[in-house]
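A.,

Following up on our hallway conversation. Structure tokens first:
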């Protein structure tokens, strides 16, 4: 898979999943703008890419504002002449249950994840249009946005919203040839180490030791296991793939479904509360949907 001549931005790429995405894109031939709030980490990642023979520059904007998004895109154009791929990975966690969550906790998470995805996606789409289209927006979701994730109100709301953006933007940008997809990663990063039973696996992954085969088959792996999906979606070979939420983890790749009605009944004259109570146990209750996370690592953050 070759991305020679393409220019990519990866936000939140100083460590973890973002770093893996940036390195993989560069290894495939793309020039990469490595963004991170910690500019020293961004610089370290950029230097590692260059040491491996790739092209990269560091950028230290705090993701969320329009000004930051515009600065990141401008950095790509200034350094490499264009922009072809935007990977919106940056995020923070402020995990607290609903009754303990403050306005500031919620606002910070939504500002970074959801608003940051919006501003970076919009800035990239404008640049794609100036270049004639055919860009790649790769938005990073999470299993937490697809299933229940205890204590992550702001995070789950943001990640669910990001998958909603995928569908809308895919429709809006289709004519220009720009594709929009979500990657739903499950990886053993520092962000999942606090989940019961995960700490030992994270230690194995950090040490570069092999993970048990059953763990990998269940969908848990390293950041490097997710990165090939990002490279594929950035490529010309993925030109026909858009509007999708695609899961990646360990040895598994999965396509998440879009929301759809699973049962519908029409009652002439409409439904009363009493008629609903009568019909619900037999007509609707058998179709109620599972809402708890079932996949290993699914309650985790990015």
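Then the amino acids I'd put at each of the 302 positions:
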């Amino acid at each position: 898979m070759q991305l020679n001549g393409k220019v990519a931005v990866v936000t939140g790429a100083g460590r973890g999943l973002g770093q893996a995405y940036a390195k993989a894109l560069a290894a495939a031939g793309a020039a990469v703008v490595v963004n991170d709030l910690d500019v020293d980490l961004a610089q370290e990642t950029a230097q590692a890419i260059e040491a491996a023979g790739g092209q990269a520059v560091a950028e230290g904007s705090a993701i969320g504002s329009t000004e930051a998004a515009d600065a990141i895109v401008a950095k790509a154009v200034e350094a490499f002449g264009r922009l072809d791929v935007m990977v919106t990975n940056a995020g923070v966690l402020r995990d607290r249950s609903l009754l303990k969550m403050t306005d500031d906790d919620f606002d910070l998470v939504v500002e970074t994840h959801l608003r940051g995805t919006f501003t970076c996606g919009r800035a990239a789409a404008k640049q794609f249009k100036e270049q004639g289209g055919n860009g790649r927006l790769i938005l990073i979701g999470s299993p937490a946005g697809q299933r229940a994730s205890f204590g992550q109100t702001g995070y789950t709301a943001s990640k669910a919203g990001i998958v909603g953006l995928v569908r809308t933007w895919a429709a809006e940008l289709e004519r220009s040839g720009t594709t929009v997809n979500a990657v739903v990663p499950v990886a053993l990063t520092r962000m999942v180490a606090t989940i019961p039973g995960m700490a030992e696996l994270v230690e194995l992954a950090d040490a570069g030791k092999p993970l048990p085969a059953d763990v990998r088959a269940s969908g848990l792996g390293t950041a490097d296991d997710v990165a090939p999906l990002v490279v594929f979606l950035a490529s010309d070979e993925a030109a026909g793939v858009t509007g999708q939420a695609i899961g990646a983890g360990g040895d598994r790749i999965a396509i998440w479904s879009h929301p759809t009605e699973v049962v519908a009944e029409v009652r002439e004259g409409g439904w009363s509360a009493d008629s609903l109570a009568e019909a619900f146990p037999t007509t609707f209750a058998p179709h109620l949907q599972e809402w708890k996370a079932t996949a290993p690592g699914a309650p985790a953050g990015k």
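Residues 295-302 have pLDDT under 50 and may be disordered. Curious whether your intuition agrees with the design.

B.
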